Amino acid sequence: MENKLINEVLDRKEAHYKPYGWHHWPDYPWMSYQFRRALGETQEGGGAISEIFQAGARIDPSDSESWYREWLHIADRNHKRGDAEDSKGHLVTAQNCWLRAVDYYREAEFWLEGEDPRRLQVFDKLEACTEKWGQYLSPKLEKVQVPYLDGKFLYAYFLRSPVNPAAQQPVLMCFGGLDSFKDEMWFMVAHGAIQRGMSVLMVDGPGQGGTIRRHKIVNRHDYEVPVGKCIDYLETRADVDTSRIAMSGSSLGGYYAARAASFEHRLAAVVSHGAIWSVNELWGSADDNHGLAGHIRWVFGAKSMKEAFEKGKDFVLEGVIDKIQCPYLILHGGYDVLGVDQAKKVYDYAKKHGVDVTLDLVGEEETGAEHCQHDNPTLGQERINDWLTDVLGIDQRALLKG
């Protein structure tokens, strides 16, 4: 098991700043990690700093119910205000409120058990706010159902870039990981893509978002299957440049992306936004008391961590990523609290096997050194999407000159 900063025992008990960002409750590192995630996403519209700290001041980090209650409070407040301002014709204010509510609802449901009925209730509100926010975008956000298997579908959103006049735009497919889903992708990857001329398809793959919450579809190691279904869907659209379809996967999605690109060669570029060499190596000796054990069991369709480890044996990139044929970016925090060794293993193996791979480790001084740049997601968006525009041949100067 590699050393993880999240397990670090600290002498300081008060909130303080670390190389990976603001550490709100040192005695509760997993709660602090999620708080840091919410705090960072304020700069992408996912909250207001004062509201984040208001919630934090009222939360008892030893009580997950207080976490649910306080995030739900500020989520509902913004949701209601958004609706009220919309009725007055104050559309920009309404959009701002709804977008904040999206991220607050995501936080509210985070520690609930997977089958807790409140989880889907809160998620329904979250999606409603995304859709309300997206109706006033130009072009507007499209709700999408990607045909999957057994007559079921993957939940997704499609959004064209407003800065690219081309009839057919390149597309970035955005996938989350163990605990992130399509709606959060706006704050992590998608916003930067549409600013630079790419359409985005934000997807709830197996084990994510609406797909697991409504269809009970858990994750799978061979993610080229759902990714292939998404590409099939994009190929039916007349507004997509099918020769320039890229994929980004964040956190556990970093494994999904690398795995998919190894076998789905219609991808023109791929990004591991946080790399994972082996899921079981990442978990190490984690048991059912692990900080994310509940998420792991739910997403992996396992009754125990022991059972999750059995399924996790297939989630490894050895003998897989030597098959990647497109340019491959690994963007990883240099002080990722979940570790850095995994990213180096992925890079070294890909490089040794002739893959066109780039490793971008973000250092402490520039911030963004946390897992998936949760402490500074805008920097993560910049690094990923600038790399993509270079690989996909998008001239930002030509698009943005007016």
Note down, in words, how this protein is organized.
By secondary structure, the protein is of the alpha/beta class. The chain folds into 2 domains: 12-136, acylaminoacyl peptidase (de novo design (two linked rop proteins)), CATH 1.20.1440; 139-278 and 315-402, Rossmann fold, CATH 3.40.50. 44% of the residues lie in helices and 15% in strands. The chain has helices spanning 29-41, 49-58, 64-87, 91-108, 117-134, 185-195, 209-215, 224-234, 252-263, 279-283, 293-300, 305-312, 341-352, 377-392, 396-400; strands at 16-18, 21-23, 142-147, 153-159, 169-175, 199-203, 240-250, 269-273, 328-333, 357-362.
Fill in the keyword field for this structure:
Rossmann fold; 402 residues; FrsA-like; de novo design (two linked rop proteins); globular; AB_hydrolase_fold; 15 helices; alpha/beta; 2 domains
Order of strands across the main sheet: 3-4-6-5-7-8-9-10
Envelope shape: globular
| Assembly state of the chains shown | single chain
Q: Let me know the number of strands.
A: 10
Number of domains: 2
Query: Which fold name fills CATH's third level, the topology of the largest domain?
Result: Rossmann fold
- Mind telling me the CATH class of the largest domain? Alpha Beta
CATH architecture tag of the largest domain? 3-Layer(aba) Sandwich
Report the radius of gyration as a whole number of Å. Answer: 20 Å
Distance, first to last CA: 52 Å
Bin the strand percentage: 5-15%
The major beta sheet can be summarized as: 8 strands, mixed
Q: Strand pairing plus helix content: what structural class? A: alpha/beta
The CATH homologous superfamily of the largest domain is named Alpha/Beta hydrolase fold, catalytic domain
Topology order in helix (H) and strand (E) letters: EEHHHHHEEEHEHHEHEHHHEHEHH
GO molecular function: hydrolase activity
Protein name: Alpha/beta hydrolase
Pfam family, one: FrsA-like
Organism: Mesopusillimonas faecipullorum
